[in-house]
Write a structure and sequence with these properties.
There is one protein chain. It is built from seven helices and 29 strands. The protein has 407 residues and is α/β, with parallel strands linked by helices. Helix 3 packs parallel to helix 6. The longest helix has 20 residues. The two termini are 30 Å apart. 37% of the residues are buried.
Length: 407
């Protein structure tokens, strides 16, 4: 069961016009909270899910001191020959205690028997007539993995709010965690509006364009681990737009593209304005700028620009952190890398700019055109170069901020 938002949660103070990117992000963070309850699931099905509680290790890893190599376990410094006695292998421990004049054959991963305080590598040992002879001394603890040296019983393995990755499931399994308490999966509804749009493959009339936003956004949201609902293309008809919003409000958050300005056919904006739940945040950003934010029947609405590049950038920079906050992962910030530029650029002051970019041997290169209608640049890119709000000249070799899509 989701927690509804008040209609005025996105309202801007009187007189606010252009909002810097950092201010917009801070306001979103302050106005949103986790809306999802918790459920317990099997650890095998937990990849991509967000923890609703801390996970405490019920067992240490490793649970027992074990051999890091194949060789011989001894008691003492190894100066004197030791009598070989018994064998220890993974899953088959040695039953007994190793005395100072004894050595036990031990294989990698085997529990270290009582009495053994160091292990000699097999290739360093000579075995003659049942005696194990070392060429010199061996320091205490050599080639032994200590119990709990990786994870100690009773410690926090992963904290509440952590999104589990495939490698994390291995960590949980190593300490015996079979089930985890996670937030219920966030549901996101996606709507495209406009008489000019048609579904790819359906055949477009001369006055129509294919809807690029929906397949792009649905796939990206699913890749982030959220559940998606495709509401489809809605024509510029007030009743149909209202019905689409009603259906979409069953989700936890709604993403729309198109219809959020002040034109005669901008029904998304008109309907949200009538409920007192619409705010146009004019963000000092390129591409993007106007981002409509509202609430429909308790469900937050992100009214994205219709331009695919601007829609993607706004989703990545603003909607993704908001979705993470609603889902229980906290308000996230994308990873940023400092890398040398393989391009030149003169930037004007006033807006933060995001350039489609990818990494080459020479550094970070940018897409040849900054036109926000060039959707092919999103496919070409591996991330975004972020240029600050102030004016700057970028020369080849200067370090710039690169935000990779993959992290």
């Amino acid at each position: 069961m989701k927690t509804p938002l008040p209609n005025d949660c996105f309202a801007l103070p009187p007189g606010v016009s252009w909002t810097p990117v950092d201010d917009a992000l801070a306001q979103l963070d302050a106005r949103l909270a986790c809306t999802k309850g918790a459920e317990q699931i099997d650890v095998f099905a937990a990849s991509g899910r967000i923890l609703a509680d801390d996970v405490i290790a019920p067992r240490s890893h490793p649970p027992h001191a074990n051999a890091a190599v194949d060789g011989y376990g001894i008691n003492g410094d190894g100066l004197a020959p030791a009598l070989r006695t018994g064998r220890a292998a993974a899953g088959h421990p040695f039953d007994g205690t190793v005395a100072p004049d004894q050595a036990v054959r031990i294989l990698t991963g085997a529990n270290v028997p009582d009495g053994v305080d160091r292990i000699a590598l097999e290739e360093d040992v000579t075995v003659t007539k049942g005696q194990v002879i070392l060429p010199g001394t061996l320091k205490a603890g050599a080639n032994i993995r200590k119990a709990g040296e990786d994870i100690t019983e009773g410690t926090i393995v992963f904290a509440k709010g952590h999104r589990l990755r495939p490698a994390d499931l291995g960590v949980l399994a190593s300490v015996g965690v079979g089930t985890v308490t996670v937030h219920e999966r966030l549901t996101v509804a996606v709507i495209s509006t406009g008489d000019e749009l048609c579904t790819p493959g359906a055949g477009a009339a001369d006055h129509q364009i294919y809807d690029a936003n929906r397949p792009m956004l649905l796939a990206q949201i699913a890749a982030w681990g959220f559940s998606v609902t495709d509401i489809g293309i809605i024509p510029d008809d007030r009743a149909q737009v209202q019905d689409a919003l009603d259906r979409a409000a069953q989700a936890d958050i709604i993403l729309t593209s198109g219809g959020a300005s002040a034109g005669d056919e901008d029904h998304i904006a008109a309907l949200l304005n009538e409920t007192g739940a619409m705010a146009i945040w004019r963000i000092a950003i390129k591409p993007g700028r106007p981002l409509g934010l509202g609430v429909w029947k308790g469900t937050p609405v992100f009214a994205l620009p219709g331009n695919p590049v601007a829609a993607f950038v706004c989703t990545y920079l603003f909607a993704k952190p908001a979705m993470d906050k609603l889902a229980g992962a906290g308000f996230t910030s994308p990873k940023r890398l400092s890398l040398p530029a393989a391009f030149t650029k003169r930037k004007k002051p006033g807006r933060r700019e995001y350039l489609r970019a990818r990494i080459t041997d020479a550094g970070v290169e940018i897409f040849p055109s900054e036109g926000s209608g060039r959707i092919s640049g999103l496919s070409w890119a591996e991330g975004l170069v972020e240029l600050p709000d102030h004016a700057m000249d970028v020369a080849v070799g200067d370090h710039v901020t690169f935000i990779p899509f993959a992290l």
